[in-house]
Amino acid sequence: MRHVLVPFDGSEPAERALDHVAAQFPDARVTLLTVIDPSAGFATGAGTPGTAEVWYESVRERAETNLAEARAEAEARGLRVDTVVETGRPAATIVDYAEKHGAESIVMGSHGRRGVSRLLLGSVAESVVRRSSVPVTVVP
């Protein structure tokens, strides 16, 4: 495997996905991708004039911090890592990024939503599995 995409949000499931890549694909180039979903800002009241920009900058700063920490830890384990922050609908952005940048595999964590929560909130991992043209490994 030459290029693995790991959607990364700083959560424990995302950390486990990165651990899986380190164990299974130690020689691969790894891209850690954080996707900022702009619709999440509206749910927090960021639709108020001026608030959306503040929300976005705060979320982007947190994403870049999480990615920098994950990159340092992964590089200490010998991985070659790139980090990227994109904005868009998470599943579509992950699939599009993989296709446009030649990722041979996507390895991602699952937040393990079940039952009504899964039906109401959907599952990014499930959507990526259905839409991706490259293999997807979901790490629980």
TrEMBL record:
Transmembrane region(s): none
A Pfam family recorded for this sequence: Usp
Gene3D superfamilies membership: HUPs (3.40.50.620)
Signal peptide bounds: none
UspA domain boundaries: 1-140
InterPro entries: Rossmann-like_a/b/a_fold, Universal_stress_UspA, UspA
Entry's family note: Belongs to the universal stress protein A family.
PANTHER family, per the entry: STRESS RESPONSE PROTEIN NHAX, UNIVERSAL STRESS PROTEIN
Protein's name according to its UniProt entry: Universal stress protein
Lineage, highest ranks first: Archaea, Methanobacteriati, Methanobacteriota, Stenosarchaea group, Halobacteria
